[in-house]
Amino acid sequence: MTELVSITQDYIKNNVKTRHENSKKGDNGVVLVIGGSSVYHGAPLLASLAALRAGVDLVYTAVPRIIINAIRSYSPNIIALPMSDNTLTIGSANRLIKSLPKIPNTATIGMGMSISKPEALNSLVKKLRESGTKLVLDASALIPRVLTEITNSDTIITPHVGEYKRIFDDNVGITEKEIVSSVSRMAIRHKITIILKGWLNVVADEHGKVATIKRSTPAMTVGGTGDVLAGLVAALYTKMNSPFDASAMAVYFNGVAAQLAYKQVGLHMVATDLIEYLPKVMMPFDKISS
């Protein structure tokens, strides 16, 4: 039975988590971002900056050593962890897990990443899940083989239409009814939470809950907006147990930030514009408790 959820300001207000005034570093979220390659250094950077702007305390950004200097030089806020190989291998995944300064609450994996073999991704996913880290998978991490590791878990995946077809070997459809039906069916079948990105964003979980949020502006087709979303999802997911709520709220905030950026720069918007507007979008919902 499908349960349609309306993503309103009241919904957001009711689900935003409180920050305690006496909290210490790490209490408000630790995110691990794993991605990047010799071609795509910006993708994990965008996800990391988005997670920081979303209010988490710490973000570790694990990228191949070949691009580590580019990541480090962009911002002093980035804690960059060099991975030993240019592609994700079982060895580099194992070494990364051992080198983590803290166990992250969430990890977002795949943006701009090059994978040597599916077994390397599955090994990484398995070890992170065993440590208690919740997962958000995007881009290169959305391959059919990974379904064996994430089925019946609290994992969130964030495909666009092409990635959706690749991981599920299924066409999402054309009409709104077809799209919602397909995404809900796959979420229930694999017992995961899916965010389908596009002109119609659809969030669906294993319990039949579904939310639809239409894209706020066609300017969002610019590269990198999905990376921002992945970082935003991971950040919100550190503070709540519901993958559905974290996903729906992230899509909402990402869309409103894009709408504000569009009003300023129109169709000349770039992904970093969304990150700059996240505080303005999220601040009205901030809660502090004593």
Overview of the structural elements:
The chain has eleven helices and twelve strands. It has a ten-stranded mixed sheet, sandwiched between helices. The chain has about 290 residues and is α/β, with parallel strands linked by helices. Helices cover about 45% and strands about 15% of the residues. Helix 2 (about 40-55) crosses helix 9 (about 225-235), helix 4 packs parallel to helix 5 and helix 10 (about 245-265) packs across helix 11 (about 270-280). The N and C termini lie far apart (about 40 Å). The longest helix has 23 residues, at about 245-265. It has one domain (about 5-290): 3-Layer(aba) Sandwich (UDP-N-acetylmuramoyl-L-alanine:D-glutamate ligase). The mean pLDDT is about 95.
Q: Any idea what the radius of gyration is?
A: 18 Å
Q: What is the element string, with H for helices and E for strands?
A: EHEEHEHEHEHEHEHHEEEHHHE
Which sheet architecture does the biggest sheet show?
10 strands, mixed
CATH topology call: UDP-N-acetylmuramoyl-L-alanine:D-glutamate ligase
Tally of helical segments:
11
Strand content: 15-25%
Quick one: how many beta strands?
12
- Shape annotation: globular
CATH architect. name: 3-Layer(aba) Sandwich
- Average predicted confidence as pLDDT: 97
CATH superfamily: Ribokinase
The number of distinct structural domains comes to 1
Strand order of the largest sheet: 1-11-10-9-8-7-6-3-4-5
